What does this fold into?
Amino acid sequence: MLSCDGTSPGLYRFCRSCVAPAPCRSCVGGWCTLAVILSLLSNAAPAPAALQGDPELLRQAALAMRSNRERLLTWQGTARSESYSALNDGVSAIATKSDASFAYDRVRDSKRWNLNNSREQNIAGPGAPPTHTKTTDIVNEMKKGGVFYYYSGGYIRDGKIENALVIDTPSRQGDDNLGYNSIDPTWYFTLEGRDLVEMLLFHQENANLKEMSPGTISRDGSRVILETRIGDATNRYQFDLAAGGNLTSFDAEDSGVAVHTELSYEQQHEVWVPKTFSTVRSRKVGGVKTLETSRKATFVSQSINEPLDASAFSLEALGVKIGDPVSDHRVGMSYRYGGGKEVERVSGLSTTPVSALVAEPAVKPRPVTDAPRAISAVEAPTDSPGGTTPGGLAKTTEGALHGGPWVRLAGAFLILVSLVAGIHLFRRRKPASR
It folds into this structure.
């Protein structure tokens, strides 16, 4: 055993007389170090979980939802939707009705929807009588192999409105929100573009961390309910294990915004698919409602896991005709559609000149909105101050949630090393009295 009289070398020194009334300097330093470490470890002990309830319920809903989606291979049908936006001036409002057909193929990574819209709007201008207009147009969209196609009649060229095709990437088109004003069928399996499976698994894996927003997890029959709170804002989700684990309702509210969303489902070939969708959003300023928007969608006919021909995802199925103008934002080219092979080669980023395609000035899109221009987008309450995503869900760094206790333990280790090294240096400079 090493002595504490300085005659034996070594970084760690022990004293035979630790129980003596006057312990040596090394023992005092050792007990101080131990006290510091125990204090830090007590601070690193897990705090009470922020989410109360059984996190396993969230995992069950997530896995049921994922399994249901994996059974959906093809999906086609028709749908009808209505949307309405109104200011509190009693005049300004926009109402839109749409009839749609759609197709989806998971293996081909393709989906398409064609909409015929009719729109009525009343707009009140400062010091001017309200204007009333009625319009009709088409909005046909397709995602195919990581490329986004947008075909609409709302384009102006040489003073005339004509149909035109825009080719782009989904990320530049606001991929998460495309379904809100369209009939992207897979969008209805999300919360305004947010992947609900990922959201549920994130909450389940981090439920025991105090950094999570406080809330509760509960079950009512076949329904799994997740409620989170931050400040005066609440988010409440309900998932039905008897309907593929899918989201059946979402409510969000704070002092300025309230959102209520409901969905129903039907089962075909062991797959649960949406049947109806409705959402209402209202904004309040000083307790007074200033804007209300609503949207309803009904899937009229649906066919699940039936064979789909590749032509269901062609430009012709999108409605594009020979001679229509094309703006390809990926390659900065504008041309006229000259038929299948020519455009397919351009869509594949080929720069080989194509005689059937004539370069022309870029087509300028005409702005189209489903809400009065004076109104900004309504956002749902957030789960945390870290930022929002569509549907009012907070952006959170999972690694940061896992890091807190380990950071404190690392700090404790560094303090231990520093104290031991300090004691060693002190004893080398001033040896203990014999």
